Structure to design on (72 residues):
């Protein structure tokens, strides 16, 4: 993650929703996609541009979904 960032730098880099989501996509799937439900590696475009859909179980995951499916 970015550290020691000023408000001006933040607002310049993340001026709208799209660059924020692109940043999350790059961080979340930097090592490639792995389905959180079935561990399959292949995906197709999900319901929205920032989603990935598993080609095995059809789970649709957003870049904004939390990393853990479990509670607690």
């Amino acid at each position: 993650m970015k550290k020691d960032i000023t408000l001006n730098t933040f607002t310049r880099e993340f001026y709208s929703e799209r660059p924020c989501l692109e940043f999350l996509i790059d961080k979340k799937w930097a090592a490639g996609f792995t389905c959180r439900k079935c561990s399959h590696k292949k995906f197709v475009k999900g319901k929205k541009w920032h989603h990935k859909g598993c080609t095995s179980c059809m789970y649709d995951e957003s870049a904004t979904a939390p990393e853990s499916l479990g509670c607690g």
